[in-house]
Amino acid sequence: MNNKINLADNPDVILIGAGIMSATLGMLLKELEPNLKIEVYERLDVAAAESSDAWNNAGTGHSAFCELNYTPERPDGSIDISKAVKIAESFEVSKQFWSYLIEKNQVRLPDFFINSIPHISFVWGDKNVDFLKKRYDTLTDCHLFKGMQYSENAQQLKEWMPLVMENRDPNEKVAGTRIEIGTDVNFGALTRRMLERLGNDGQVKQYFGHEVRNLQKKNNGYWRVKVKDLATGEKRKVYARFVFIGAGGGTLPLLLKSDIPEGDGYGGFPVSGQWLRCTNPDIIEQHKAKVYGKASVGSPPMSVPHLDSRFINGKKELLFGPYAGFSTKFLKKGSFLDLALSIRPDNLRPMISAGIKNIPLTQYLINQVRQEPEDRLAALRDYYPNAKEEDWELEIAGQRVQVIKKSPEGGGVLEFGTEMVTASDGSLAALLGASPGASTAVSIMLELVQRCFPKQVQSPEWQAKLKQMIPSYNQSLAENEELLYKVRAWTSDTLDLPKIGANYKQEAGKV
Question: Whole-model pTM above 0.85?
């Protein structure tokens, strides 16, 4: 490194991407180490405009209450709920951190950022009804899912979701589960408020309209990050001990440029999305739930169909979808060359191998791209039989990049969750993948802190602070029923979620 570089003028931490992940990590690190100097770089002019934006993100507070893809059926017919339990615990961790920020006046969160909304799973057909009943029986053995109801009664289901049951074939076998303590979350609003708070700290600088073009590890342990001001064309170099790449679909290209061995073999498969947005206020008002169904064979998890009540910027909305599609862009506002430029010798074989193994996904995406308006309406009518085309308009949703990585056999495997890639020395971390992403951001960033700051995280000061921010830190809510109820009682009061907190204080005392 040039000896004229004054490292004292550079940050301790660089966060690439101004989305929910960078905002969460920034808040965690500043709470743990208040004197840290942080710089945030975002290529767009505003925060949370890609994957974290309300219109680009599913918005469900993912607790695995209604998402059937998180509870797969095993070959023997039993239901595997391990992923559902992990996701449910992770969302409880997120709520704890948000509650801490509110109580300590660290973040002035918008009133509309989180709302109570019932989460419902709905299926039809003998096979799917049998699956849902087994899922319900298995989930309700765990206290994380206490309060879930199951019904095959048409009248009961109509009370839960009138639009879904209206004018449905009375001879069709249907079933649903419902839990009242579900939530809807505007992650865009949450992200912007956390970054606003960070921006008020004199040691945190945020640069919008700045694109990170390259990064390289130097011999002295620092990362040299090359940044371009997109408005002026000015280029500069910034140095930091730690770099986090949380740029959504833009993460993979930067991870590849970092040349860390841990990133070898990683590739990405972009999947685009669309929504049908209801424009009829009377219909919007009739539906008060998130109703999730079963995904089509071969479809990615982000394409699980749902008729979804949303609260976006204080206004109630009703969406159906998402409809998947294919684009070679890695970001909604990215380049059509993104996919081609991401192909390298070390990831070519895994990408080809994953493509061969996932031909049904390719066929599904081709069919989705070829859909006409009447095809989308037909899919909607599976969940809302009386739907009329004039009451709905098409909206473009977010862009996702599904992770491809080397398999143990040397080929490639397509991953549908999130993937954390960290350098062996902990100096760089990159987050790849999609769902359930935002809902589990706090747990993901806690894992990053443990991987990348192992010495600090074991210190008495950091341990005490982590337990203050996350009362359940290092404890299993799936194994500690009383702690779960205490945590839910606290967070529901702080986040103003009366339906969730109504009985949990009493329940905690009974355990």
Answer: yes
